[in-house]
Amino acid sequence: MANTPKSNLYEDLKRQILTMELDPDADLDEASLSERYGVSRTPVRDIFRRLAGEGYIDIRENRGARVIPMNHSTLRNFFLVAPMIYAAIGRLAVQNFKPTQLSDLKQTQERFRAASENMDALAMVLENNRFHEIFGEMSGNVYLQPSLGRLLIDHARIGHTFFRPRNEDMKRRLQVAVGHHDGFIDALGAHDENAVVDLVFEHWELSRENMEMFIAPQGLKADAFLGGPAIHLLEKSS
């Protein structure tokens, strides 16, 4: 998409949702966005429809658009299916990636590494998201790519604490994650499906407890691979 007020609106809304500048369930005001970006309401509605199709927002009849919410049901489903989707994407990426995509992945990793060294949380969120988006593009699978895209929205929102480390252990985990990205690139270059899938589960396990901190009381630890006590808490709230 060319660099236009309409494209700026699209990219800005995506960024604000991923980085939690816009809270889950926040209302999006068509009139104020139209005025701020200097476009009529028709392009704003076009962008809303596109973002709704990609899973970023929800358009409710007679009630307008809102940022896609995160409730007990969506979070439970996220924890249950994310590792499976990521593993399937990883295996297909090894089988189907193009050299230009691998080059794009390497460049994204360098930006992610620089952001981690500078402790630039917002840049880390966006570059990490892009890193995993490229895996989806590498897979070339029209069924899995939309599922991955939807997962990555909530992965960014739930896991934002991972990129704002508050102690030395969290900083160490972040550096391990950077190393995992390097490992993904090496495994892809070697066309090693098993290595990629193994890394998927290592990478998932590394970030899982940090993500649970977003939805579970402080001090409550994970006790199972697929969600642990956070899932039980969510179920109790239903």
From TrEMBL:
Q: Mind telling me which CDD domains this protein's record contains? A: WHTH_GntR
What keyword terms does UniProt attach to this protein? DNA-binding, Plasmid, Transcription, Transcription regulation
The HTH gntR-type domain sits at 3-70
Transmembrane recorded as keyword: no
Q: Which Pfam families match?
A: FCD (PF07729), GntR (PF00392)
SMART domains under this entry? FCD, HTH_GNTR
Keyword Cytoplasm among record annotations: no
Q: Which PANTHER family match?
A: HTH-TYPE TRANSCRIPTIONAL REPRESSOR NANR, TRANSCRIPTIONAL REGULATOR, GNTR FAMILY
Name under which the protein is recorded:
GntR family transcriptional regulator
Source organism of this protein record: Rhizobium indigoferae
